[in-house]
Amino acid sequence: MHVVVNAAMSVDGKLSSRRREQIAISGPDDFDRVDQLRADSDAVMVGVGTILADDPSLTVDDADRRAARADRGDPENPARVIADSRIRTPPDATVLDGRAQTYLLVSEAAPPDFIEEMEDAGAYVIAAGQDRVDLTTTLAKLEGDGIDQLMVEGGGELIFGLLEEALVDELFVYIGPKVIGGRDAPTLADGDGFIEDFPEPELAGVERVDDGVVLHWQF
Ligand SMILES: NC(=O)C1=CN([C@@H]2O[C@H](COP(=O)(O)OP(=O)(O)OC[C@H]3O[C@@H](n4cnc5c(N)ncnc54)[C@H](OP(=O)(O)O)[C@@H]3O)[C@@H](O)[C@H]2O)C=CC1
Ligand SMILES: Nc1nc(O)c(N)c(N[C@@H]2O[C@H](COP(=O)(O)O)[C@@H](O)[C@H]2O)n1
């Protein structure tokens, strides 16, 4: 499986404010670049923190891109993948609207009645990990289901979890013209953070987009 992370951050490295509400950091051209990345992927993944904060659709906006996917025999939209250890995803979340296949990655601690509720809502549940989703095992299971190209859109907790398990191949970061600040605002990689053996990706590209810049890193 090839894992590509994409996120937009402020000048000072924040994905959102301390209120953890969705903030448009990207401009129109960057959102269009992200839409193409989604269209090129078999699945788009976020953590449950992003589901609760943003209630995203994670679908492809552009009709021509959806048609191109259908022409090559793929579903119009990539699958959606949520890392959600104990099932905090609300049953009326937009990712359960049936517009794409939705996988819920859960841990062994997920309550069985919540699993049943999610399955009734149309989700395909994959369980691994005692208290928290075992990302290595669940991503291998997704690969077994035909997901070769996985795009991850955040947030910072999930991105750190993937970096910690050396599961990230590429990272695109849009840095937009905003300063958000705040010690409790989410950053690109949160979690516990590294104290040694810091991942050291190679810079593969720099491109000016809208009023900011996209950095492309390879691991
Ligand atoms: N600017 C941008 O590009 C983006 C911004 N955002 C913003 O980021 C914020 C949300 O980010 P954040 O709070 O970090 O949430 P995340 O979306 O990263 O979700 C984190 C949650 O995922 C669950 N999870 C399950 N397994 C794992 C694992 N192995 N490793 C890590 N996490 C795991 C955990 O919850 P549990 O233990 O319950 O399973 C964890 O709390 C919002 O403000 C949103 O608007 C989000 C995406 C992109
Ligand atoms: N690329 C990008 N730029 C920003 O400025 C953002 N705030 C985000 N957020 C991500 O996009 C998701 C919204 O998806 P839908 O349009 O609802 O499908 C959101 O959940 C974040 O992952 N991304």
Describe the protein.
With about 220 residues, the protein is of the alpha/beta class. It has one domain (about 1-219): 3-Layer(aba) Sandwich (Dihydrofolate Reductase, subunit A), CATH 3.40.430.10. The protein has helices spanning about 30-40, 50-55, 65-70, 110-120, 135-145, 155-165, and strands at about 1-10, 45, 80-85, 100-105, 125, 150, 170-175, 200-210, 210-219. Strand 4 (about 100-105), helix 4 (about 110-120) and strand 5 form a beta-alpha-beta unit. The chain is globular. The mean pLDDT is about 100. The structure holds NADPH dihydro-nicotinamide-adenine-dinucleotide phosphate and ligand LIKH6CAM. NADPH dihydro-nicotinamide-adenine-dinucleotide phosphate binds next to strand 1, strand 2, helix 2 and helix 6. Pathway: Cofactor biosynthesis; riboflavin biosynthesis. Keywords: NADP, Oxidoreductase, Riboflavin biosynthesis. This is 2,5-diamino-6-(ribosylamino)-4(3H)-pyrimidinone 5'-phosphate reductase.
